[in-house]
Design brief:
The chain is an alpha/beta fold. It is built from ten helices and ten strands. The longest helix has 19 residues. The two termini are 18 Å apart.
């Protein structure tokens, strides 16, 4: 079964873990590493014959338009990650509407392709944002992958369905939550820091169970900064944030290569229509 491979494209300094210690006004002065890191990801995908969806910040597209075109020219899907990684539950409905419009315009201008998929920064669509899916549907998005059916200190909608579903009765929009695994009695996302920190068999088992037991494709995600062990260190960040962000960065590329070779992967937009028929 073909599973969904996704990449959340953002700079190392734009992550939620650092939002209280790095001022947004300082972003333009910080070292940009997103192009080099994304190019490493593109090379890994080319090596393994993988197509994926790149959920990309409009902020990045505005500053690195040639990167967006390289991603599209390589056959990958360009999708939206919002403008500058502001969490959806911090917006009013009108602010959210403006954010996704601004991001989409930058992405489409840079990539020369239509943007029909969206992922909220830090999986920040949850019970606090009952209006978000309606606004995405109104804007013509085909799908969202913005829900994490877990309990976490930064995000989570633990009661959400674990598989693709229709959040609105009157619109075709599909919400495809991130796949999770059960670890020590709790659900954790399959991807990102948990993939780096936990044994690879946990992700392999989660993908296999989604495919064989639930007969569903899995949704995996990671970030380009996770293949960059030489990125700057933010010493002012809380210890927990530093552990989450920096641990096992050097092992990430190898673990990804193994995962890509073990399972079949594809773009979200190429798989979501099949799931829509079941939602």
């Amino acid at each position: 079964m073909r599973n969904a491979m996704s990449v959340d494209v953002e700079e190392w300094f734009q992550v939620g873990a650092f939002e209280r210690v790095i001022d947004r006004a300082d972003w333009p002065r910080l070292e940009s590493r997103v192009e080099a890191n994304a190019d490493r990801v593109l090379a890994l995908f080319a090596e393994t014959g993988t197509l994926a969806t790149f959920f990309t910040l409009g902020w990045v597209a505005e500053r690195a338009p040639r990167l967006i075109r390289r991603i599209a020219d390589a056959g990958h899907e360009i999708a939206s990650h919002g403008w500058d990684h502001q969490r959806v539950f911090t917006f009013t409905p009108d602010q959210f509407r403006a954010d996704i419009a601004r991001a989409r315009a930058a992405l489409e201008d840079a990539g020369g392709v239509a943007v029909t998929g969206y992922r909220a920064p830090s999986f920040s669509i949850d019970t606090r944002t009952p209006w978000a899916h309606a606004i995405l549907a109104e804007a013509g998005y085909r799908y969202s992958s913005s829900v994490a059916p877990v309990r976490h200190d930064h995000y989570g909608w633990p009661d959400a369905p674990p598989h693709p579903f229709r959040p609105l009765a009157d619109a075709p929009l599909i919400e495809w939550p991130i796949t999770t695994a059960r670890v020590l009695g709790r659900q954790v996302p399959v991807g990102g820091g948990f993939f780096r920190l936990l044994p690879g068999r946990i992700t392999r088992t989660a993908v296999a169970e989604a495919n064989r037991v639930a007969a569903r494709p899995a949704m995996f995600y990671f970030h380009p900064w996770e293949v960059d062990p030489d990125q700057p260190r933010v010493s002012a960040a809380p210890l927990r944030s530093r552990i989450r962000h920096y641990s096992r960065l050097g092992a990430m590329e190898g673990k990804l290569r193994g995962l890509l070779r073990r399972h079949s992967w594809g773009r979200v937009d190429a798989i979501v229509e099949t799931e829509a028929a079941r939602a």
